[in-house]
Specification:
Elements: H1 2-22, E1 42-46, E2 56-58, E3 66-73, E4 83-90, E5 105-112, E6 117-122, H2 123-130, E7 139-148, E8 151-153, E9 179-184
Parallel strand pairs: 2-9
Antiparallel strand pairs: 1-3, 3-6, 4-5, 4-7, 7-8, 7-9
Amino acid sequence: MKFRKINILTILALGAVITFTACSKDDGPIPKRIGIEEVPALTMNLEQPKKDNTDTIRLGTPAAFTGKFKVSMVFPTSAVPNKVDIVVRKNNLPTSSSIATNANVKVFKANVTSFPTSITVTAAEIAALFGTPIALHDAYDFAPDIYVGEKKYEAFPAVSSGSGSGVVGMNSIGYWEYVRISVKN
């Protein structure tokens, strides 16, 4: 009986020592050693209503197309990025036999530093950027590459979904991570 009490007390004491030595002042939801950095949330919105077809290039009259969108901070009082590059990807539409990739991404406008800012794009600029004429069913997605300090957060990285991946449900507060311009008849 005495041996059993000693074993129980030893196990309890050992458990207490392990429990209290595992705790530190650095514990909590986000330990101080992690170093979270604030990445600004930017939104991309068409400036004219959709009824004006600012998101559609008509194949018969591509020269008549002028799209205009605004890049702005979702939270105006939050930290502003060092700079932003507006990039565009072409035809990131998956087919039934493949997965969409971000292999065809170009820089449309570099070194944007003030927000909100308006950006205008024409069909001729898009065709020149990709080096091919605009074709039926093409889709062009414009989004920001965000630079914070020494880090770059790509909108459309080749190996993952990135910052322009399609956040579900955020459009109810006016947040859009990219603007899509498509080519139709």
